[in-house]
Amino acid sequence: MQKNWQRWATGVIAAGILVGLVAHILGQPLMVIGNLLFMLGLALIVVGAVLILARGHLFTGWRHRRKKGEDPLPGERVDVHDVATVKNSPIQFSPGARFSFLAGLGLIVVGIILTLL
């Protein structure tokens, strides 16, 4: 049974192949189609990396100045003695990051295959 992000990634790869086929029928060379799919795959991998870094607690423990009467920021609620524990927590892959990596890798493979043809 496929999970939702796996279905979406498979659909994006299939859509990329379908768009490439239509572009080839309309007269675009396979090299151009392969290059575009490769760049789209790289962009999806960058999005996946950003999604992983967003959940990485990179700014935990930083001090922010706040005005009198304001609520504390989320980063200020962590006790000073617990900062290392929070920062050294395992990397969490969200379903969006998994989708981005799988779809990006699939489009890169399709792009390389089309470039080599």
Can you tell me about this structure?
This is DUF3899 domain-containing protein. InterPro entries: DUF3899. Residues 34-116 form the DUF3899 domain. This protein is an all-alpha fold and 117 residues long. It has one domain. The chain is 63% helix and 0% strand. The protein has 4 helices and no strands. The mean pLDDT is 80.
Task: Describe what is shown at a glance.
The protein is mostly helical and 117 residues long. The protein is built from four helices and no strands. It has helices at 4-25, 30-54, 83-87, 95-116.
Give the SSE layout:
Layout: H1 4-25, H2 30-54, H3 83-87, H4 95-116
Main sheet: strands, sense, barrel:
none
Shape label: elongated
Distance between the amino and carboxyl termini: 33 Å
Rounded radius of gyration (Å): 21 Å
Helix amount: 55-70%
Mean residue pLDDT: 80
Q: Helical segment tally?
A: 4
Give the number of DSSP strands: 0
Summing up helix and strand content along with how strands pair, one would put the structural category as: mainly alpha
Number of domains: 1
Keyword list:
0% strand; mainly alpha; 63% helix; 117 residues
